[in-house]
Amino acid sequence: MSMSMADVRFLFERMRGLFHRGMTSLRTRGWQATWLRVRRHWARAPQLPSRPLYQPAGAPFAPFSVPRAEAPAASIIIPVYNQAHHTLTCLRSLAEHPPACRVEILVVDDGSSDETRGWMEHIAGLHYHRRASNGGFIAACNDGAARARGDLLVFLNNDTVPQPGWLDELVRTFGEHPDAGLVGAQLIYPDGRLQEAGGVVFSDGSAWNYGRFDAPEDPRYASLRDADYCSGAALAVPASLFRQLGGFDTRYAPAYYEDTDLAFAVRAMGRRVLYQPRSRVVHLEGISSGTDTSSGTKAYQVRNRHVFAEKWRDVLSTRHLSPDQLPTPALLARGKPQILLLDAAIPQPDRDSGSLRLVNLMRMLIAEGAHVVFVPAEPTDTGRGLERLRALGVETWIEPFIGGLPAWLKQHGHRFDSVMASRHHVAAAALPLVRRHAAHARFLFDTVDLHFLRESRAAELAGDSALVRAAAGTRQRELDLMARSDLTLVVSAMELQLLKDLAPDVPVGLLSNLHEPLASAPGGEQREDLVFVGGFRHPPNIDAVRWFVKDVFPLIRTRIPGIRFHCIGSDPPREIQALHDHDGVYIHGYVEDLDPYMNGARVAVAPLRFGAGVKGKINLSMAHGQPVVATTCAAEGMHLRNGHDVMVADDAAGFAGAVVRAYLEPALWQRLSANGLENVRRHFSLDAARDAVREIFRLPQH
Fold first, then answer.
1. Phi, psi (degrees; rounded to nearest 5) at 477
2. Do 685 and 476 contact (CB within 8 A), yes or no?
3. Which of 421, 469, 457, 629 has the alpha carbon at shortest distance from 539?
4. Which residues contact 590 (CB under 8 A, 6 or more apart)?
5. In 320-445, alpha helices (H)
6. Helix axes 616-623, 666-683, angle to 10 degrees
7. 67 in Cβ contact with 38 (< 8 Å)
8. Distance CA 81, CA 360 (A)
9. CA separation for the pair 592, 576 (Å, rounded)
C-alpha cells in the first residue's frame, strides 16, 4: 500500500494518539485497519475552522471581572502553576460568556513564579488562593474543593477556553440524569479537531482518548453516553459525592490518573459517569507538563498506570476491553441490547404524534438498559430534533457520515439484536438490507398507522374509484411486508383485530401512543376557547379543519358568541391559511410551545372524517386534562366512551352541540377532564406500555 507524505503525517498524528495515557504498542492496534478507518471518516468530516479556536493572551494585562455569586450553585476550580497568559485567556472566556447558573471561580496557585499572583489579585470577583508550597495538581484541586461553596464542583484546567454554554450543559445534565455522579465535557484541539469524547480504559489500566483527532460532529462522538472516565481538564461532580469519596486519591500525587480513578470510584458508588458533547471546551494538551512521559511530571503517568491497575484490578479484568481491541460504538455498548430504529426523518415530537411516540419509545428503551441507534432513511433537516436525540443518548447518524443506508448497514448491521423500521415505505426498502447485513436481528415493521385503511376511508369519503384502487395496492404491499417481517406493530386494538382477520398467520404486536399525563391540570374556569392540533402534511387534518370551520364552528358561535378557534399545526396550505382571523378563527401554524394552548384552551376538537390509527391529538389533550370532542373515526381504538371521557358526534349539528355542552356545563367538563387523564394513564402512558416494550424487543427483566 502506497501512501503520500500527507497520509504519513496523518498516520503519525493518529498513532501518536494511540500512545496517549499509557497505550501499549503500535502492533496492538493494527495500524493498517486504523489508518483506513480514520482516513475514511476524516474524508467526510466537516471542514475545520479557518481561524484557531484558542488564541492565548499576548497583550499587557488589563484588569477585568469574572462572575461571582454569593450563594453559588457551582464552583469552578482552576489549579495553576505558572502559564499566566493561558490562565488569563481561560478567565477572559469565562468573563465574556458567563454561565446562566450562579457561579464562583477559584484559582488555586500552586506556587507560581511568573506573573500569576500579580495579575490574579487584580481580577474582580475572582477567589484567588496561593498555596504555601507546591504540592502538584491533585493537592491544588483538593485544596480548591475544600474552599468551594457550590453544590457542584467543576474542575477546569487553566490551558482551556470554555465555549459558550459549556457549564450550563454540564449542570443541565445532572438535572436530566439524576443518577449521574460525574459529567465531563467534549475536549477540542485549537484547530477544531476532537481531542476527547470521554475516555476508554482497557483491562491493563491503559487508556484511550476516544475520538482523538476525529471530527467533533462524527456521530460516534456526538451523543451523550456513559464513559469509562472523563478528563480532569473539564469535569463536574457533586460536592457532597466528591467529599464522600475523599477527593482525588493522593496515592497518584502529584498528578495523572486521578481523574480516571475518580470516575471508577463514582461508578462504584452506583452513579453514572457521563460524557456530554453539548459542553465544549478547547484544550491545549500538554501545556503544563509537556508530553514526554520519560521525564518530569509527565513520568508519573507511566507510574500511576500501574498504581491504578492494581487498585482496580478486579473491575478491570471483568468489565473492560482488552488492550488489543479497537474501541467502536458496538464494543462500547457491549453487554446491552443494541436496537436500530429507522424512520423517514429525524423525529420532531413537537410537530406530530408519530414522532412523539418514537422519541418516548427511545426513552423507554434506554431506561430499560438498551443502546439505541437511530438512522433516518432519507436526507433530513436536523436542527433541534437531532440535538434532542443526542441529548437522550441516542447514537444518531446523519449524512455525510452515513454514506447511504446500504453502506452503513454493511458496516454496522452485525451490531443489532433488533431493527425497527417505521412506515411501510421505509420498512420495504430496509428489509432486504437488514436481512443481508444483520441476518441475526429481528425485523420489526412499525406501521405507525395502517396506511391502506386511511387511504381507503379517504377514497370512500371522496367517492373516487382511482383512490380506491390505490388503497388496494397499498394494502397488498403492507400485507406482503408484514408476511416477511418477524413482527408487525400496530397502535390500536382495532387495527390488531383487523389484521388478525385479514392475515391470521402474521405475528402482530400492539405498541400504542406514548404520553406522560400531568399530575394535575388547570380547571375549566381558568380556560377559554377551542383548540385543534395537527400537522398539515397529513391529509385528514386538512379535511377536518376545513369541515369544522365551514360547517361546525358557525353553529357554535351562535351559542357562544366571541368564542375563538385556535388551529395549531405545521405546514398549513394556503386554503387553511386563508381562514385566519375570520369570524374567530386563528391559524397559528407551527407553535414551539404547546403548553399555553393545552393548559389554556377549554375544549379540544378532533373533527376527523377519515384516518387510521390512534390519534395523538386526543392523547395530547387528555394528558393535559383537556376535554375532547371527536368524531367516531377520531376516537376509535382508544378505549373511550361517549359522555364519560370523550364527546362523540359525526354530523355538524351534533358536533357543535357536543362542543357547547362540554364548554358550558362544569360538571360534564370536570368528568371528561378527570376520566380523560385516567384513560391516558391506563392505556397510553409510558408505565402502561413498559411490559409490552420489554416483550416486543425481548429485553431482560430488571
1. -65, -40
2. no
3. 457
4. 351, 568, 569, 570, 571
5. 329-332, 353-367, 383-392, 405-412, 424-437
6. 110
7. no
8. 48
9. 19
Which residues are within 8 A (CB) of 696 and not within 5 positions of it... i.e. 6 or more apart? 444, 487, 489, 509, 511
d(CA 435, CA 452): 25
Cα–Cα distance measured from residue 122 to residue 63, given in angstroms and rounded to the nearest whole number: 6
Cα Rg, the chain, nearest whole Å: 29
- The span from the CA of 423 to the CA of 419, in Å, is 13
Chain center to CA of 94: 26
Grid cell for residue 355: 414522532
% residues pLDDT > 70 (the chain): 89
Counting Cα atoms < 13 Å in the Cβ hemisphere of 81 gives 20
Alpha carbon distance 693, 702 (integer Å): 13
CA atoms of 340 and 415, how far apart (whole Å):
9
47: which DSSP letter?
A: P
Contact predicate 646/621, CB 8 Å = no
| CA-closest candidate to residue 90, choices 136, 54, 65, 128 | 54
pTM of the full predicted structure? Answer: 0.85
Q: Compute φ and ψ for 293, nearest 5 degrees.
A: -80, 5
Q: Residues in the chain with pLDDT < 70? A: 1-60, 286-300, 381-382, 702
Quote helix, strand, coil % in the chain, to nearest 5. Answer: 40, 20, 40
Helices (H), 518-664: 539-547, 553-559, 574-577, 595-598, 616-623, 632-635, 652-664
Of the candidates 699, 694, 271, the residue with the CA atom closest to the CA atom of residue 511: 694
Answer whether the bond into residue 400 is a cis peptide, omega within 30°: yes
Distances (CA, A) of 89 to 112, 157, 517, 522: 17, 11, 48, 50
Number of C-beta neighbours around residue 427 at 10 A: 27
Task: For residue 38, give the nearest of 70, 12, 58, 72 by alpha carbon.
Answer: 12
Instruction: Tell me if 192 sits within 8 A of 124, measured CB to CB.
Output: no
With CA atoms as reference, report the closest residue to 153 among 283, 242, 281, 262.
242
Grid cell for residue 689: 406500555
- Nine cell digits for residue 346: 429525524
Q: Does residue 339 contact residue 671 with C-beta atoms inside 8 Å?
A: no
Q: Of how many residues is the chain composed?
A: 702
Provide the pLDDT for residue 581: 85
Q: How far apart are CA 529 and CA 597, in angstroms?
A: 9
- pLDDT given at position 458: 85
Please say whether the beta carbons of 649 and 598 come within 8 A: no
**Element counts in the chain: helices (H) and strands (E):** 27, 25
The C-alpha cell at 81 is 502553576
In whole angstroms, give the CA distance from residue 443 to residue 488: 9
117: Cα separation from own chain's centroid: 43
pLDDT digits (tens, 9 = 90+) for 512-560: 999 999 888 889 999 999 999 999 988 999 999 999 999 999 999 999 9
Q: What residues have CB less than 8 Å from 183, skipping those under 6 apart?
A: 170, 173, 174, 230, 235, 236, 237, 273, 274, 275, 276, 279
- The answer for residues whose C-beta is within 8 angstroms of residue 427's C-beta and 6 or more apart is 342, 421, 445, 446, 481, 485
Neighbours of 501 (CB within 10 A): 7
C-alpha cell at 121: 489579585
